[in-house]
Amino acid sequence: MPPNAPPGLRLTRLTLRDFRSYPALETGFRGRIVVVTGENGAGKTNLLEAISLLGPGRGLRGARMGELGRRAPAGPLPWAAAGRFENAYGRFDIGTGTTPAAEGCGSAERRAWRLDNIPLRSAGELAERVAAVWLTPQMDRLFQEGASGRRRFLDRLVWALEPAHAREVAAYENAMAQRNRLLAEDSRDTAWLAALEDAMARHGVAVAAARRGLAARLNAVLAAGVTGAFPAARLDLLCPLCEALGRDPALAVEERLRTALAANRARDAAAGAAAAGAHRADMALWHLPKRLPAELCSTGEQKALLVAVVLAHAALIAEARGFAPLLLLDEVAAHLDAPRRQALFAALAALPAQAFLTGTDPALFAPLSGLAEGFRARPGILVPDEEFPLPECA
Amino acid sequence: MSESEPIERLVGLLAKLPGLGRRSARRAVLRMLMQPEALMLPLAAALREAAEAVRPCAVCGNLDTRSPCAICRDPRRERGVICVVEGVADLWALERAQVHRGLYHVLGGTLSALGGVGPEDLAIRPLLARVAEDGAEEVILALPATVDGATTAHYLTDRLRPTGVRVTRLAQGVPVGGALDVLDEGTLAAAVKARRPA
């Protein structure tokens, strides 16, 4: 794609008030690729987090409301983040931040959203307008840590495409927690247990089916080589429920899970957790040219695999929503060797998506000079980086 | 703001009610204080009267001044059909809609292992006794479409099975007057699953 073709979705202005390390920030973005460099603690990730919060969800750190306000002696301050976006149909403003808890209605602060300054009842309405995918250094440990982190990663991928997935996961976990409680209390109420196992079976199979669908779509994109010079990859679900769904109708899989849960009550009570179900799923990412699972690849190769997945996911969202999501790539260049960095930059230049990249070392981004807009992050502010003359297309 | 003690007490009591925060409670109190004779004393009398007279119906759990309640006593009601609801608010909603001509049974909640609500905390035993003794033909489970509501419905279906009564549940799907494109995926999926011959 030529660099001056109009992107699907573009953030052109960001305003922050008392958000993390930023007391007040107002900055415009004119590049389709934006590079933010700065020392550790300068606020680069905070900036990406603020952008990630302009859509539904808890952003790229999964932070709670109380963690987002700038610290003051009396506690975190109320915060606000606002973005101006442009898409094929014009421009619109999205704002989010703290609503002061209504007097007498409890102390919990709630997050509010505004679209063109009109309050939204829920963030779900934003999903049609904005989307962002991200890669953060925390994900570097994805393949070393336990399965729960990978399951969350997988569920976020599904959720970005199927908003109802979050509700199914929550319903499943709710039913499972209740069953665990009954088993821990040594309840003999088999009708109650059976009712909860029925909910686990229904929601668990829905969760597994959604994960299976995502894996199939993602693998199709990965196989088609949309991700450019990144290694061919394949995502395998390690989940008996997903495998069963490949062989049998969903209702039969539900019935089997129901039966298995009922049969294993004593064992599950002793273990304190259910031995079978959607919460046992794991995933493996394969480096196809090397025929190695990601956990056996080098750190740089793992990063390259994750970049491939994130780019493929962005392509899926673009296909589903009709616009390419924002790409937020935190410290992504650090682990990549020069050819891979070049491949990443080439892939970003070819994608219709607007990308925000951060890093400590401006030299790593030198190949983007002339293509990208650059900023230096200093505590609380962003300064245009003269090493990155504004691209002519802007 | 200086609020003398009776006002503050009134605001505090009103603010405990669902849907009222301190701000709305204060507004209501101010309004009443401007017309104590017209608003406040009649309200006080009505509150006292309701508190003394209204009690749960011993049969169905509805709130009424008499037990059995007016619905349970009504000879025009279909006595063979019992609609099970979570609370009195749901019973009132169904009555407003005038869609159910049978009797009701108020459970008083839904099963929640995490919330410490078990079968013994709900009016399940009285329901089973009613069905067995009165020979009901159908029990309609009108419970919320939440995990706890579905769990309770499943539990009741299981416990009612030995009585042989027909157990039905409310349908889930497209709301009346609703467009399809604004429905969430979960509701759409439920509607497609519950489709029926046209």
Structure write-up:
The complex is a heterodimer of chains A (394) and B (198). Helix content of chain A is 38%, strand content 23%. Chain A has ten helices and 17 strands. In chain A, the strands form four sheets. In chain A, strands 2-1-6-7-8-9 form a six-stranded antiparallel β-sheet, with helices on one face. In chain A, strands 10-14-15-3-16-17 form a six-stranded mixed β-sheet, with helices on both faces. In chain A, strands 11-12-13 form a three-stranded antiparallel β-sheet. In chain A, helix 3 packs antiparallel against helix 4 (164-184) and helix 4 packs antiparallel against helix 5 (190-223). Chain B has two domains: 5-53, RecR Domain 1 (Helicase, Ruva Protein, domain 3), CATH 1.10.8; 63-197, Dna Topoisomerase Vi A Subunit, Chain: A, domain 2. Chain B has helices at 5-14, 22-34, 36-53, 70-73, 88-97, 124-134, 147-160, 185-193, and strands at 55-56, 63-64, 78-85, 102-106, 138-142, 166-169. Chain B has a four-stranded parallel β-sheet with strand order 4-3-5-6. In chain B, strands 1-2 form a two-stranded antiparallel sheet. In chain B, helix 7 (147-160) links the parallel strand 5 and strand 6 (166-169). The longest helix of chain B is centred in the first third of the chain and has 18 residues, at 36-53. Chain B is globular, with a radius of gyration of 21 Å. Classes of the chains: A alpha+beta (394), B alpha/beta (198). At the A-B interface, helix 4 and helix 5 of A face helix 2, helix 7 and helix 8 of B.
